[in-house]
Design goal:
oxidoreductase, FAD/NAD(P)-binding domain, 21 strands, 18% strand, alpha/beta
Length: 505
């Protein structure tokens, strides 16, 4: 039998998190690593989401790596094609292609306590790694609700993240299910060309204008000639969002003024009072993600659009029946119903030191030390792990903080020397999670009166970080060995042991 390939680090996923980890590994002098990607190209969610109108709701200069500034963003808010091109550019500039393994979906990875490594089974072959960086991201696996009769629908059905570009919606009766960030971009993009568009809305979102514009050639020339201006622009965008955090995390009642602006935004485009009533949320703004669009409300006011203020309850052939009993005929159904965020499928494929999957350990709710390490899963580091999401700023800021933690994690392993692993102490994980959840109690995400995808099946917010990005960066600057068990091979190869002298350190 051929010997299994072994690498120092295996990175799972090639979106922003995975590519960022790969760049950081190379900058730390680590070249013995692979990036395992289930698809055939890099890009993560910006590869998978190619639906009409797909764009980012974070300004371009903030939604990019600080170590890879891009002076030529064409718009204030970039479209999907520009962000995906940026990630391809990063891949080339930092020499990551030799490390990429495409069509290598991870089927299972198991901690090997004798060899102190992860045994990884992929669709492209098996390997092992001293350390795994899980960068699969929370917005990677679509979620489609279990609708009675869906299998009887004779038309086309797909999720927004799996858009069927071979199917022409022109002249069709289209049902859009959901009113999240994807739906408010899809609706105005397809409304002009469909015969009829029926929007099934369980809960109306708060929508603010999207202040998008083309970035002028003069601005881009300035950024190319004087790189510090790009950094200054990024810093200003970051600072504005940091100042907003207090209202979300400590003083939700101050968000009332923002609600008034959102209502005026709606009133400008929607003159029908009955339609405005359907579209007006009954929860505090910010409890669900605040959406940005200047085209969504005008599209809903068009004569070929119907808004059903009720979720889709049943399907009878080509007839879609809402929970309130209203009916609509459709040739195609597009689900904009989000992703498996609090029950990520990758957790079902990770088997830890005690023989349990990460999904089993997280059955009561996801939790990880500083968003990175789960107890019982040595040398496993998550990027965009539990409680690292944001409600008002750029996730790239959080990713870069976690890359700092990853870099120090590797340094600590080097200092300890030899075959060694770090396993987060259960008490440290619990203490960190308790502090996070205590802070969460005052936030708009927990007190705003809504049910959102930030909450898991138990009603706990295991998704959002309840503070500023600067706070998180400070919290993840260094690895505290006191929060970990230091594990080495047992004498005689009979399993792992914890080294007392190192534990006391």
């Amino acid at each position: 039998m051929a010997e299994r390939e072994h690498v120092r680090v295996a990175v799972i996923g090639s979106g922003f998190g995975g590519l960022g980890a790969a760049v950081r590994l190379r900058r730390e002098g680590v070249t013995d690593f692979v990036v395992l990607e289930r698809a055939g190209s890099v890009g993560g969610t910006w590869r998978d989401n190619s639906y009409p109108g797909c764009a980012c709701d974070v300004p371009s200069h903030l939604y990019s790596f600080s170590f890879a500034p891009h002076p030529d963003w064409p718009r204030a808010f970039s479209g999907q094609e520009h962000i995906r091109a940026y990630l391809e550019h990063v891949t080339d500039v930092f020499g990551l292609r030799p490390h990429l393994r495409f069509d290598a979906e991870v089927l299972r990875m198991t901690w090997n306590g004798e060899r102190l490594c992860w045994d990884i089974e992929t669709a492209g072959g098996d390997l092992s790694a001293d350390l795994v960086v899980s960068a699969t991201g929370p917005l990677s696996d679509p979620k489609i609700p279990d609708i009675p009769g869906l299998d009887t629908f004779p038309g086309k059905v797909f999720h927004s993240a799996r858009w069927d570009h071979d199917y022409d919606l022109s002249g069709k009766r289209v049902a859009m299910v959901g009113t999240g960030a994807s739906a408010i971009q899809i609706v105005p993009a397809v409304q002009p060309r469909v015969e009829r568009l029926t929007l099934f809305q369980r809960t109306p979102p708060w929508v603010m204008p999207r202040m998008d514009r083309a970035i002028s050639g003069a601005e881009r020339a300035l950024h190319r000639a004087l790189p510090f201006t790009t950094r200054l622009r990024r810093g200003l965008l970051w600072g504005i969002r940091e100042l907003q955090v207090q209202a979300f995390t400590k003083r939700p009642n101050e968000l009332g003024m923002i609600e008034s602006l959102a209502k005026r935004n709606m009133a400008r485009a929607v003159k029908d009072p009955a339609l405005r009533a359907k579209l007006t949320p009954d929860y505090r703004i910010g409890c669900k993600r605040i959406l940005l669009s200047s085209e969504y409300y005008p599209a809903l006011a068009r004569p070929n659009v119907d808004v059903v203020a009720s979720g889709l309850g049943e399907i009878r052939g080509s007839t879609l029946v809402a929970a309130d009993g209203s009916e609509a005929e459709a040739d195609a159904i597009v689900f904009g119903t989000g992703f498996r965020v609090t029950d990520m499928p990758i957790a079902e494929r990770v088997v830890g030191a005690e023989g349990r999957t990460l999904a089993e350990v997280w059955k009561g709710g996801m939790e990880a030390l500083r968003g990175a390490s789960a107890a019982g899963f040595p040398n496993w580091v998550s990027i965009i792990g539990p409680n690292t999401g944001l409600g008002n700023s750029s996730m790239i800021l959080m990713i870069e903080s976690q890359l700092n933690y990853l870099a120090d994690y590797l340094r600590q392993l080097d200092v300890l020397g030899g075959r060694v692993a770090l396993d987060a102490r259960p008490g440290a994980v619990s203490d960190w999670n308790r502090r996070v959840q205590e802070r969460m109690k005052r936030t708009v995400w927990n007190t705003g009166g809504c049910t959102s995808w930030y909450l898991d099946a138990n009603g706990r917010n295991t998704t959002i970080w309840p503070g500023t990005t600067a706070e998180f960066r400070r919290a993840t600057r260094r690895v505290d060995l006191g929060e970990y068990r230091v594990v080495r091979p047992a004498a005689g190869g009979g399993g792992a042991r914890e080294t007392a002298a190192e534990v006391s350190a």
